[in-house]
Specification:
The complex is a heterodimer of chains A (204) and B (488). With 204 residues, chain A is an all-alpha fold. Chain A contains nine helices and no strands. Chain A has one domain (4-181). In chain A, 75% of the residues lie in helices and 0% in strands. Residues 184-204 of chain A have low confidence and may be disordered. Chain B is mainly α and 488 residues long. Chain B is 74% helix and 0% strand. Chain B has helices at 11-42, 50-80, 88-110, 134-166, 169-172, 175-180, 189-220, 228-250, 252-262, 270-285, 299-312, 314-328, 337-359, 362-368, 373-402, 413-438, 453-487. The chains are: A mainly alpha (204), B mainly alpha (488). The complex binds protoporphyrin IX containing FE and copper (II) ion (CU). The site of protoporphyrin IX containing FE (HEM) has 25 residues of chain B, from helix 1, helix 2, helix 15 and helix 17.
């Protein structure tokens, strides 16, 4: 078991938690939602790399396809995407603390777990929906005439919208490239199982 | 091409394919009858009224596009599963989501009176003028979203299986042979076409989900506006691609079935692979031909789209038509309803693309778009091309099952009569559309001017022949379904 992921994750977390860094990122809506929160998710994902094999096996016994993990991650995501909680995090240290704890723990780690269990179909499905969600939210923030957060200006909200649209587009292109180019070697498990004979219809 | 042994078809998968076809067949017959009613309404022979006409038009188009997708998916799955290991459970999920989505769409139209067209162009769904509630629009678009989601899963599963066998989708498109002349593991046409369908439709459905999500959100937050031109771009990116992919899935029937009739295998060569790779890109970028009337679009985009539209369907169409002719030519092929429908479908596809290309020329489009020319060309390749492939596949399944018995005849006089009615009726029906378009009759008008009524009535007469032919095919297939089910 390597400790590297844990160290990386801890270092990233420590930097993000430094008051000046946190203040700087949280000073803009895009920095808060499109930089800080995703990096906290990344902390959780990295930390999951340190989870020992035995624990994973036990997890797999009751969440074989990672669907529970996925549900947990998506719930946490839905929760922290509500603008009012971002507002609250700015005003209330308890909420801020909750954000720093739950985003890596209940969003990042379960996501990494689910991803490790999902097959290509599940991953593609989640990725396509995340892309679509980024576009929908991006459109919403870019065009909403009123402020969603008391602490951020309308302009910042629009910047966030554009950032989400760009993020969605980048994700879509990356995903497309990934499937078209794919892995370089043909995997063995696609080999035909048994012979069926060729059947030929017609008059010969 | 390395001769690969064929995989056995999963029994559950086979039954699901039959279920897909049964759903598609029933929708074909029902919604073609609705089309006949619309044509009669335009000909003032049936008092539909504008509201009902638009509800029917919305339902007709949405349901038939869905049925084409189901039939295309059935064909693709049936043949692709001989080469790669697909997951029957995913096929089942897509059937369930399709049925849920279909109920939502039908409910939105029949109960909710939604009639903004299957293209749900912004901002029409939100501005019904009191004809339908916001909820009906949301349920309609939600139904499309549910159906799209199921197809996303299905194409992802195909992509997964192709990746597992070939390593990358590029290999699924046969790039080693195309670019390096390496013929050691060239995929069969069914794999090439399925790869293309996966790439195109995964992209299309992701953007479709986005624009549907935005449109539904807009219903409830009308103050968050949407750039109508952006919405139109996204919608046609989705709609154009999704409809085209139904044909690219269904054409697998031609590649797989014709060779069985003549004993000449369909070997992909470099030209064939180049055509499919070209069409993979073109089908995705050709959609702006639906926006040629939108003067606010950047001009260069429209110019590019015009050129691409010439080339979009053409490469695959030419290699397919040419390949079909080489396979059939002097082969002593046995003509029955299945092989006849397959040849008709090649003709219908090719014939329908010509007026489509004419319409994609900007100068022509300025005059012809929004005339009956447009339903003329797409009914040409959908009704005579795509749907013929679906019916051919239904007959093929039957003859395939029967050929294991003592060479029993697989279709009777009634089936051949049906083919005749479908052929004559279909050609007449689309030519009346094209002719009225050329005479400047507008499309999507519920009530027609007195001088157009003759066209409409002639069109309705031909449509009645189509419905009669389709009834023979559909009822025949549904009648044979139990036998096919038992054999699966
Ligand atoms: C007997 C067969 C059919 C008949 C009589 C029929 C009739 C019609 C009529 C009268 C319209 C409205 C034309 C207008 O005024 O704009 C229409 C539109 C349409 N039909 Fe059909 N149709 C048939 C088959 C099909 C098939 C097989 C498909 C698809 C696979 C299809 C897809 C559509 C679509 C997409 C529209 C466009 C709706 C719109 O403009 O939003 N139809 N059809
Ligand atoms: Cu198009």
């Amino acid at each position: 078991m390597t400790r590297r992921p844990l160290h990386l994750s801890g270092a990233l977390f420590a930097v993000l938690a430094l008051p000046p860094v946190a203040r700087q990122l949280e000073s803009s809506m895009a920095g808060h939602m499109a930089v800080q929160v995703p990096l906290l998710v990344l902390c959780g994902i990295l930390a999951f790399g340190a989870v020992p094999e035995s624990v994973r096996r036990r997890l797999a016994a009751w969440d074989r396809h990672g669907l529970v993990g996925l549900g947990l991650a998506l719930s946490a995501m839905a929760y922290w995407m509500l603008p009012r909680w971002l507002d609250a995090a700015l005003a209330d240290p308890v909420v801020e603390l909750a954000k720093f704890v739950t985003v890596p723990l209940l969003w990042g780690m379960p996501l990494a777990w689910a991803w490790s269990r999902l097959g290509l179909v599940g991953r593609g499905f989640v990725a396509a929906h995340l892309v679509a969600l980024a576009w929908v939210l991006g459109w919403f923030y870019a065009n909403a005439p009123a402020r969603m957060c008391a602490n951020y200006l309308l302009e910042e909200q629009q910047t966030l919208g554009s950032a989400l649209l760009a993020l969605g587009t980048a994700g879509a292109l990356a995903g497309l490239l990934r499937v078209v180019v794919g892995a370089p070697r043909p995997a063995a498990d696609g080999q035909p199982l048994r012979l069926d004979g060729t059947h030929v219809l017609g008059n010969h | 091409m390395a001769n690969q042994p064929l995989l056995a078809i999963d029994p559950l998968g086979r039954r699901l394919v039959l279920a897909y076809l049964a759903v598609a067949a029933a929708v074909f017959l029902l919604m073609m009858s609705v089309g006949l009613a619309m044509r009669l309404g335009q000909g003032a022979m049936l008092p539909l009224g504008a509201d009902l006409f638009y509800q029917l038009m919305t339902m007709h188009a949405a349901a038939l596009v869905g049925a084409c997708a189901m039939a295309g998916a059935a064909i693709m799955w049936y043949f692709l599963s001989r080469y790669v290991r697909l997951t029957p459970a995913v096929l089942a999920v897509n059937l369930a989501t399709f049925l849920i989505g279909a109920v939502m769409i039908l409910g939105a139209v029949i109960i909710g009176k939604f009639g903004a067209g299957w293209t749900f162009l912004y901002p029409l769904p939100a501005k019904s003028g009191g004809q339908w509630e916001i909820g009906a629009a949301a349920v309609f678009m939600g139904g499309l979203l549910v159906i799209g989601t199921g197809f996303l899963l299905l194409h992802l599963d195909c992509a997964r299986a192709i990746l597992a066998r070939y390593g990358s989708l590029a290999r699924g498109l046969g790039w080693p042979l195309l670019f390096r002349g390496d013929d050691s593991d060239t995929p069969p046409p069914a794999v090439v076409a399925s790869t293309m369908a996966a790439i195109a439709n995964i992209t299309a459905v992701a953007s479709g989900a986005a624009v549907l999500g935005i449109s539904i959100a807009n219903l409830y937050f009308p103050e968050v506006t949407l750039d109508p031109l952006l919405a139109k771009n996204l919608i046609y990116f989705f709609g154009h691609t999704f409809v085209n992919v139904t044909i690219y899935m269904a054409v697998i029937a031609v590649y797989e079935i014709l060779p069985l009739y003549t004993g000449r295998p369909w070997k992909p060569n470099r030209v064939f692979l180049a055509a499919w790779t070209a069409s993979t890109v073109f089908v995705i970028v050709a959609y702006p031909h639906h926006l040629l009337m939108d003067f606010a679009m950047p001009h260069w985009v429209l110019m590019v789209a015009q050129v691409i539209s010439f080339t979009s369907g053409i490469p695959v169409l030419i290699v397919t038509a040419f390949g079909a002719l080489t396979i059939v030519h002097r082969s002593g092929i046995r003509w029955d309803v299945a092989s006849g429908l397959l040849m008709l479908s090649m003709f219908g596809w090719a014939g329908g693309v010509i007026p489509a290309i004419v319409d994609a020329v900007i100068v022509v489009n300025k005059v012809m778009h929004n005339t009956m020319w447009v339903p003329g060309h797409f009914h040409f390749y959908l009704l005579l091309g795509m749907v013929s492939m679906a019916f051919a596949f239904m007959y093929f399944l039957n003859s395939e099952a029967r050929s294991k018995d003592a060479g029993a005849p697989v279709d009777g006089g009634l089936d051949r009569l049906g083919l005749g009615a479908y052929l004559v009726g279909g050609l007449g029906f689309v030519f009346v559309f094209l002719y009225s378009g050329q005479a400047s009759v507008p499309r999507r008008w519920a009530a027609h001017m007195p001088e157009w009524l003759d066209y409409d009535r002639l069109g309705a007469l031909f449509a009645a022949f189509v419905v009669a032919g389709a009834a023979v095919f559909v009822l025949g297939f549904l009648g044979r379904l139990r036998g096919l089910w038992a054999r699966a």
